[in-house]
Each structure stands twice: as structure tokens, then as C-alpha cells.
């Protein structure tokens, strides 16, 4: 018979032996502990690597290529001929022959355009719109409520603009897709460039009305830009996608605003029979081209084509659309293609030195192994960096660079093409060649888009341009942002856990909270609640600062200078009031404040500040990656290096001076108005500097509903105030 006591011995012995075994933590836990324990060197390496990765982006740029094989640019011979150029010149002369200067004569242009559209056999109608109200209102930041109310209350001919819209129904299509051509013109002051743009637009439209290969409808929008190019296109798109049946938002009896002349009576009767006040539509827009002729009055070897692609909040069209335009312009029409460039960087000495260093390193690597050669000439590097900086800036700004931005708001791929001749527009001899090249370019782009069986999707939507034919994809440039932001959570964890942030503790360079007892006190105490309260109060202040411009705009007889001064004074006053309500910024709750808590206070506050900065940058990268990238370049070094001034007095002289200099420099560069003033002085000098420049810049951001305004006021500015808070912290 078995002894029951013996049966219980083995399990007990097994349990006791297993409990004594030491289990190693998982690899990811050990990696986290290693990063936190070496957070100083990790932060330094990641931050330096992040900036270096941005500097080498022009080297990593790839040549553009057409991803969608169906586009087949240049596969067919152009049909745009000299006869179409003659039609364009004829219309230019008719437009310039009209008398301008009165409200009645301004309405003659839509009638002239409509008559020509009717002659080509296409459908035509008029679209009425009003000027938009670019006034900041916090409740309407991402909506169009203010614009809609203004339209409803204003219906006179003198306060409206009139777009003329022509539609060609594709003979091989089913009416479900369309290609939009937009030609803006200023009816209040018609210039030769506007007349040439309309002439070119009509000649292309007339040609497309005769072809048999169209599979998508063609919509030509002659957009009156008296109130701005964007306003006219945006109003038409709003009515196109959001029809309103109970008010005449898009209808206008245009003939009541036109002047009837005897010699136009017969022609007007024919136009009225074919012209409709009913808003007509086609199918889903596959792509849109905004093209206009400009006179830059600069001598060049070739006719120039400038491409503008940036839309609201950093949105970009599919790269294939830019690629086919570049291919046709360069390889078929012999045009010189340009994109926006930061000209102030083209003559930068330090940038040229960096380019020469990278070129020398590339040559040395190539001598060791020819396959290791990676660099580009220094001149190409400088030009690529200047173009890259411009591309990042305009994407980060969040303001459309043309009326094509209105299409991108509806997820329609669109770009603006500015065509300028190599000689002055006043030279009539060069008009024919110039118009022929422009017409064949637009025809080629329409042919390529017409070949698509679906929307653009093969190529990139997230990219930076370093030249018209080179780009940096999101998979490359996001590495720099990841390297810049990654030290923030590591540093926050290291600071809060109480792990020592340095190789040595000599001279009390960092707060001594590394022992087990002090770390336990710091973690178990309620000091983190005080830090969280301070961070919450500062971000609440940021929300109030965000809403102040709405109240300032109500002040009578204000200027940019007075508005900026009022904004600054009110912001400082509200910050002081919030500090008084919530407690002094450096106050401590409780009856007893141990010395070790005082030394740990700023550390915990910095940990919470760094964590909030990481969260803010991460959220902004989802909305506008370029804005988050540029913001990280200023915010991350400032958050990493900030130290209390009194704490620097306990360090060695050389280290204290270096740390103090870095903190003060980053505090100045991290303040948005100071950064803007420094950039303006470096590019324009002191002559054009004004106190209201920052107000004007911010006003343009909220007028265009740019999310960059939210980032600056809700993320960047509160983090800057918190860093100043830490810098002035009493130990």
C-alpha cells in the first residue's frame, strides 16, 4: 500500500526547484533596458543620424519613371497643328479687341467664350460664384460654412464672378469619367497672357471636340480669377460634387448682366439656344490640368514650363501625372522644365562645402571599389538640396501653390502648368511656335490620361522632389524623421525611471536619483501628477491662444502690427493667470518637500514634456509629414538638451558654457516668430522686417485651413514654453 505522504513529495520538490530558477527576461525587454540605461549616447547618435540622413537625401534621390504602362506618353503623333494655332490667335485678337474698364464689358468675355464653344459643337453653361471670406473662425476651421452663408446673402451681378464651362461628350466613353482643363483669367484686368491662355485653351478644346479616340469626357473650365484663381475653381468643384436644389448657388441668368449690342443680336440668339443655366456634370474626374501662359520677362535658351503640385496640408498628386508632363515637355516639345527652388540656398557657402565633402568621400570610396561610388557633383547637390528644401517647405506650409489644390481636396490628381516663352510675349512672331508647343503638350497629357482604365494608383503619393525628374520616396525620407523622434520616448522612459543619464556623476551633472531608494521614492511619489498638471495647463493655454485671433479680428481699425502685439500681450497675460489659478509653475504641493524631490522635479517634468512632444509629432506626421519633419528638426534637439540654468552652475566651466549656449540658441530658434524673423533677415535683410510679418504668415495658414497652424499653436508653442519652464526651474 502506497504512502500518501510520498506522493506529495515530488510535486513540492518540483515547485520549489522551479521557483528558484532565474528566468532571463525576453529579448525585447533586455533591449529596452539597454536603450534606457544608455539613453544619452542613444539620443545623441539618433539625433545626429537623423540630421545626416536629411543632408544625404539629394544623393538618395531616384530618377522618375512612369509606373503605369497604360499611360504610354508620346506613343501617338500629335494632332495639334498650325490651323489650331490660327484659331488660338484669332480668339486672342477678339479678346483684346473688347473694351474693358466697366462692369458691362467684363461680362463680354464669358459670352465670347460661350459662342466659340457653341461653334465647336460642345455643351456650354455659365456658373456663378462669389468671393470667399478668408476670416478665421474656430468652429469653421475645416468647413465651408462662412462661404455658404456669404453666397446666400449676395446675388448681384457686380459682386459675382462667372465661370464658363464647356463639355465634350466622349464618342467612345460612357460618361462616367472626365478630364478637366482649367484656364484662369482675370476679367477685371485682361492682359496679353490671359488672352493667350484662353486662346490656347479654346484651340485645344476645339481640337478635342473633333477627335474620335476620346474615351473620357472633356470639361473646359474658363475660370474667372477676379477674386482669385483658387476661389473660382473651388466654387465650381463645390457645386459639382455637392448639388444644392433649393437655392441658385450655381445658376445665373448671365444674359441679364450682359450688354446687348446690335451686331451681336443674331449671334446671341444662337448662343442662347445652346447655352444653359442648368449646372451640367460629367463623370468622375480622372485628372485635371490647370494651365496658363505667363510672361516672366527673362531671356532663356528655351521655352520654360513650371510645374506646381503642392496642395493643402502637404497633399501631392500621383507622381505619374508629373512624370508624363515632364517626359512630353522635355523629350517631345523641347521645353525646359522647372519646379520651385529655394534660391537663397543656391549661393549657400556651407551647403557647397557639404556637397564637396560628400563628393570627395564618394570619389575615395569609388577608388577602393567602383561599385561604392554614390555621390553626385557638388553643384548638383546644392541645386537638389535647394529644390528639396522648397518641396518640404511648401508641403509643410499646407497652403496650395495654385488652383489645382482645389481638386486635390476631392482626391483628384491635378497640377498647375505655367508656360513662359523664351522671349517676351509682345513678340508676335514667336506666338505661333510657342502656342504650338503648348498645345501639343496638353494634347499629349490628355491622350495619356485618356488611356487609363482606372484612377492613378501605381506610383507614389508621398514624395519630395529634388528636381523635375528626381524624387525621394516616403520609404527613404521617413527614416530621418524616425531617427529624430525615436530618442524622445527613450529619454522619457529613462528620466522617469530615474536611471542615470550620463557616464559619470561627478560634479552633480545630473540629479542623483539612481540609487534604488531614490528611484523608488521618485516613482512612488506624486510628483508626476504635478508635472502632468503643469503640462496640461500649458497645453490648455495653447488652445486659448489658438482661439484668440477670432476675437482680435473683431477689433476695428486694426493692423498686422497691432494684431500681433495684442495677440502677444493677451497670450502672456492668460499664461500668468492660468499659473496663478493652478498654482505657481514651480510650486510643490504638500507640507514637506524633501531635497531629493526638489532635484527630481525638473527631471519628471522634462520626462512628461518629452513624452507630449513625441505624441504631438507623431500625430502631426499622420496629417502633414513635412510639417512634422521640419518641426522635429527644431523641437527634438530643444527637448533633449534643455537643462535648468541653476543646474549648469554646478558643472565644469567649459561644459556649462557649451550647454548654456546650446540651450539659449535652441530656445531662440525654437520660438516660431524668432525663426521667421531670422529667415527673413537672412534672405531679405533688415529692410523688409516688420512686427506684423508673423501675424500675416499665421493669418495665411488659418485662412487656408492649414493643419500647420494647429501644430504650431497646440504642439510646438506649448513644448517651447515647457522647455523655458525647465530652463528657469529653481533647484
UniProtKB/TrEMBL annotation:
For this protein, the parts annotated as crossing the membrane are: 27-60, 474-496, 534-552, 564-581, 602-620, 626-645, 657-679, 708-728
Cellular component terms (Gene Ontology): GPI-anchor transamidase complex
User: What is the name listed in the Swiss-Prot or TrEMBL entry for this protein?
Assistant: Glycosylphosphatidylinositol anchor attachment 1 protein
Region ranges (Disordered): 1-21
Which Pfam family is an annotated match for this chain, by its short name? Answer: Gaa1
- The biased composition feature labelled Low complexity covers 1-19
One of the GO BP terms on file: attachment of GPI anchor to protein
Superkingdom assignment: Eukaryota
Instruction: Decide whether keyword Zinc is in the record.
Output: no
